[in-house]
Write a structure and sequence with these properties.
By secondary structure, the protein is α/β, with parallel strands linked by helices. It contains 14 helices and 15 strands. Helix 12 runs parallel beside helix 14. Bound molecules: pyridoxal-5'-phosphate.
């Protein structure tokens, strides 16, 4: 019975050309990977923005933590999993995010569940950007409090909804800092004004902002010069921070509350010392030499945007390493991505329901580890595959 149902659904997914599959990759360095057949790819789709997954300092820290403290954490943070590595990293994260306190969760996804599910109560209303990450949407869902969705980064729409929506309890506004599909940045100056005017708690998920924007790489608040204006800053250890895990930074009272009440924090085994130490080492590199890493990342982002535009591709403007190349039709987008794969370049094709109908695109991402010649070569290949698809080659 169950299997029949699943078979039918899977067949429908296949008929629509939407089936997803896992590809195993062996990363040789942050920019190149082999598949199982031994084919080598230039990777322009990872979230490893600073390219620090392979830094000697990071690997050494991870190895040393495993050797000193063991491979696993052995329990949840409130039992035996309260490792030195976790508390040390939280102190560093709090300082880096210019906050009183921070708390590590097992993933960024679990952080959003843990914070939203932990804090929202019946009677509260959460105002959420329509392009927010799935983990924010799911966190709002399981909290069971009312969610009001505003148009993407549309502050007039948000203001209108804040004015018209009756609220018995607390107002929350939740947004990505850097949006994962468009690479654009939330309008934090207006969000701060609105949150102050409506006495709302502002939550910004900086998964794609940390290690990417702000002069110290600390994300959206630093980018706008609005340190201390965001109530809760969420982030991940799995993107620019080159490891895995998630965190929230904010006032100590909120963190203390989450330690006591957030089920995704309480009922899951803590991250391994190795994963925590890797993130800590990455953060140390970023803290001591922000310009070294951020400077190259920004240069590479600007360069690849320019090169792709020069190849005649329609690139959405921006300053982040997320470079959307607009295609339109879902089928053409997937052909484009497959053609690039054939040519040895890995980029993600993004189609509905992740983006609206007619806005399918390639999501090209660049890291600080890519060399100029890699990017120049890649842009040429992307341009020529695109022209081939147009029948103009
Ligand atoms: C990637 C991402 C997450 C999830 O983080 P993980 O550590 O991968 O679970 C959450 N929020 C946003 C905005 C993200 O881009």
């Amino acid at each position: 019975m169950l299997e029949t149902r699943l078979q039918e659904e899977l067949q429908q997914i296949r008929r629509q050309g939407l089936e997803r599959k896992i590809t195993d990759l062996h990363f040789l360095d942050p920019t190149q990977a082999l598949d199982r057949e031994g084919k080598k790819y230039l990777v322009l789709s990872s979230n490893n923005y600073l390219g620090l997954t392979h830094a000697q300092e990071v690997i050494a820290a991870s190895r040393q933590a495993a050797a000193s403290f063991g491979a696993g954490s052995t329990g949840s943070r409130l039992t035996t999993g309260g490792t030195f590595a976790a508390s040390d990293l939280e102190k560093r994260l709090a300082r880096f995010k210019h906050s009183e306190s921070a708390l590590v969760f097992n993933t960024g996804y679990m952080t959003n569940l843990g914070v939203l599910y932990g804090l929202l109560r019946a009677g509260d209303v959460v105002f959420s950007d329509e392009l927010n990450h799935a983990s924010i949407i799911d966190g709002c869902r399981i909290s069971r409090c009312k969610t009001v969705v505003y148009k993407h980064n549309d502050m007039a729409d948000l203001q209108r909804l804040l004015e018209s929506e009756p609220v018995a309890g607390q107002r929350f506004i939740v947004t990505d800092g850097v949006f994962s599909m468009d690479g654009d940045i939330a309008d934090l100056p207006t969000l701060v004004k609105l949150k102050e005017r409506f006495d709302a708690c502002l939550i910004v998920d900086d998964a794609h902002g940390v290690g990417v924007i702000g002069s110290d790489g600390s994300g959206t608040a630093a980018h706008y010069g609005l340190l201390g204006k965001i109530d809760l800053q969420i982030g991940t250890l799995s993107k620019a921070l080159a490891s895995e895990g998630g965190y929230v930074a904010g006032k100590k009272i909120i963190i203390d509350y989450l330690i006591n009440r957030s089920r995704p924090f309480i009922f899951s085994t803590a991250l391994s010392p190795a994963a925590l130490a890797a993130a800590d080492a990455t953060l140390q590199l970023l803290e001591t030499q922000p310009q070294k890493y951020l400077g190259v990342l920004w240069e590479n982002s600007g360069l690849l945007r320019r090169l792709l535009s020069e190849e005649g591709l329609q690139v959405i403007n921006g300053v982040t390493p997320i470079i959307p190349v607009m295609v339109g039709e879902a089928e053409l987008t997937m052909k484009f991505a497959a053609g690039l794969r054939e040519a040895g370049i890995l980029v993600a094709g993004i189609r509905p329901p992740t983006v609206p109908q007619g806005e399918s695109r390639l999501r090209v991402t660049v890291t600080a580890a890519h060399s100029e010649s890699q990017l120049r070569q890649a842009a040429k290949v992307i341009g020529s595959v695109w022209r081939g698809l147009q029948g103009r080659c």
